[in-house]
Specification:
homodimer; globular; seven-stranded parallel sheet; Aldehyde Dehydrogenase, Chain A, domain 1; alpha/beta; 2 domains; Aldehyde Dehydrogenase, Chain A, domain 2; 15 helices; four-stranded parallel sheet; 16 strands
């Protein structure tokens, strides 16, 4: 768009004649609330500009963003060094510092990710359905952006850039609230984002960063349902539960992934060993790692001893049911609390089952609707499992670790949903869109 | 399914070994909470059976339901007569009693609606996408039910049957909470629903009615996010705001419809008069009736006098801006509070605008994202309006009154959403579905 158009919308945005009734009241005289409210208003205004920008304009913005990020990486690394030093002084552990660190190699990787997003097909303006009615009305359903999306996440600077990139590519304005330990890094990244927006003639309000360390600031943000259309929390279960508890805005979320791999009696043993080992150990701290292994009793004596050897080689702690421990006594006794537990670690619960039906029942009882796998050579049993298990992704003869936007061919991922509303499983660009109905008539009236 | 299968699932359902952690605690020892918790558990269990029932089985259920409803209409009318008498004694107005009344003609109409739903295409098991990955994984995305849906609505017995019919057709279990004044009618309708479920060998928990008159019962229901996947409130704005405020479960809703009709300078005058009159007066109490008329200043002197005459003929009260009142002085002075007001009555606000851009700005500022129309012969202006207005349905040369599931060809409607998440605009059967990913491999592991 031209500068003039952009300015026109900016004006529209910054002085809405009527504040939506849902906006928080009273508190908005305090500076931090006032700032958040202004950010939300500016984001809503910017969302109208973004929705009408062409794919070329949005892609040019992403190109400018990845260039500016590389050009100014020195400033980013410097700010990140300060964040890291403070977090270290505060006693954060090494895994935490690892996620917080944003070095030149990470910045290059993030810039490459932006380029990959840029090259993805435009998710907007897709014709989703078309229906000519008997009265002559033509009803078209067309993909449009969601509007304003708030992303609430932990101290991970890579998320700042990648989430902003995905939202802008899909025509959404975004409000970012990262963890407090990454505030200095995020502040520099937000400057880079704003500079890129200005160069590309987009309203600066398209991206904003909530710079407060106060919890009350997030609570206030989550009350602004008149301006914000969707909240995506990313992080640990407690962060997500807090967001759901407080939010007056729709939330798409994923509490946790308690994934199962069921080895059926008709499984190919070599495949079952390799897939189960991968599902447990390839990255045990991820939500799509397998936490419980279910084994059909007929194959358990052949399958479990070698599986146990492989697990032990990788340092996996096994916790088994009584039938499991009769075959592999080296497994510890599983407690009731081990079933349905998300270990996020090199620990696995193992249960022998009498039938695929029992496996399905078990998965639907203890699973969290994330990713579930069956290993079997029997296609009928596999189809039953895929049909009857209630989860976002169900695998036949593959590792649960594949639940991921890139692996599913979505090209990108802003998160994984275990909700059933709007998006389920990996969320890519299409999942960041809504739609509107365009209805073409020649004077039709309703009778 | 067979009785045995149904019984198996019933067993699964009624004794889940681990109560989901989100379930309300403490309160569940009180009889009403205990009952609601049992209903929610039974609904979740039943949802697994419904999800795996064939389209034929679900259609047979709807057939039995409409037959049973007709067979037992005497009992329904009798219970409704008591509800009506009590509501009248409590001083309810005639419009209210009209919605509460459920007579033989209404019952026949409802049975016909069930038949129409039965004949709609099955919304389940549609292949939404299919993707063969470079590693050989085949990723299929398939439509499945949402699971358990709670419908919270006013004292309208027709909603009880129609909402249940739509949920069952789409394989969802449903928990119904109707207005207290319809409790006796709903109790009989729930018996009819349960009898039909049993005859068709579906678990009785597929449909349940929250029979309490206590507000706390609804609050408790809205906390059961471990069992219920979606809440759809239907009714006035305050009911909907209360549900959003309390719910820990995703809500799809529609607060209100402040719809505009914009008559552009290139409008056909006859079309503009007829469409505007229809949009305002055909059923003024509905959410898709036009509340504000915007008129381009160049056409206002030709358009407004005859429009005013037509409005006055129908008893419409006009409230105009100063420019409007210079042309039609019979209009009252519009107050600031008239813009963006949902009159739901024979009242219209009228504003003269200088350009289509001003109309778009006005609509995006005062509208509620429901239904907006432009009347113009200029297709470029129309395209601009359709693209830049942010609403669920945008009309070129047609009445805003068409926003409706039947009119859009969805075949049915459970409600209209002004959210942008999951469903926007009229919600039919497809909007009552989610999806799952089925992934077919031959031993793939992630590296």
């Amino acid at each position: 768009m031209t500068k003039t158009e952009s300015a026109k919308y900016n004006k529209v945005v910054l002085s809405p004649p009527v504040p939506p009734p849902q906006a928080g009241r009273g508190r908005n005289e305090m500076p931090i609330y006032r700032e958040i409210l202004e950010q939300a208003k500016a984001a809503k205004a910017a969302s109208l500009v973004l929705a009408n920008a062409s794919a070329e304009q949005r892609n040019r913005l992403l190109l400018l963003l990845s260039k500016t990020l590389i050009d100014q990486q020195g400033k980013v690394v410097e700010a990140n060094r300060e964040d890291l030093a403070q977090a270290k002084a505060a006693g954060r552990n090494s895994a935490y510092l690892d996620r917080l660190g944003f070095f030149e190699a990470d910045i290059r990787k993030t810039a490459d990710a932006l380029s990959a997003v840029r090259e993805l097909p435009d998710p907007l303006n897709r014709l989703l359905s078309e229906n000519k009615r008997p009265n002559g009305l033509l009803v078209k359903q067309v993909a449009v952006p969601i509007g304003v999306i708030a992303i609430i996440y932990e101290s991970r600077p890579d998320v700042t850039v990648e989430a902003a990139g995905l939202c802008l590519k899909s025509g959404n304005a975004v409000i970012l609230k990262g963890g407090s330990d990454s505030l200095q890094t995020n502040t520099v990244l937000a400057q880079i984002l704003r500079q890129s927006l200005e160069k590309a003639n987009f309203p600066a309000g398209s991206v904003s960063l909530v710079a407060s360390r106060e919890h009350a600031a997030v609570d206030y943000l989550l009350s602004l349902s008149g301006y914000i259309n969707l909240v995506i929390p990313r992080g640990g279960e407690s962060l997500i539960r807090t967001v759901v508890e407080k939010s007056k805005i729709p939330v798409i979320k994923h509490y946790k992934g308690v994934c199962h791999t069921y080895v059926d009696k008709a499984a190919d043993l070599n495949m079952a060993w390799s897939v189960t080992l991968n599902a447990k150990t390839q990255r045990p701290a991820t939500c799509n790692a397998t936490e419980t292994l279910l084994v059909h009793r007929d194959i358990a004596p052949d399958f479990l001893p070698e599986m146990a050897r492989l697990f032990q080689e990788k340092g996996v702690e096994m916790r088994g049911c009584p039938d499991t421990r009769r075959i592999i006594p080296q497994a510890r006794v599983a407690q009731e609390s081990d079933w349905g537990n998300e270990f996020l670690d090199l620990t696995i619960a193992i249960k022998v089952v009498a039938s695929p039906e029992e496996a399905i029942f078990w998965v639907n009882t203890y699973g969290t609707g994330h990713s579930e796998a069956i290993i079997t050579g029997d296609n009928l049993i596999a189809e039953m499992f895929l049909k009857e298990v209630d989860a976002a992704a169900i695998y036949h003869n593959a590792s649960t670790r594949f639940t991921d936007g890139f692996e599913f061919g979505l090209g990108a991922e802003i998160g994984i949903s275990t909700d059933k509303i709007h998006a389920r499983g990996p969320m890519g660009l299409k999942e960041l869109t809504s739609y509107k109905y365009l209805v073409y008539g020649d004077g039709q009236v309703r009778t």
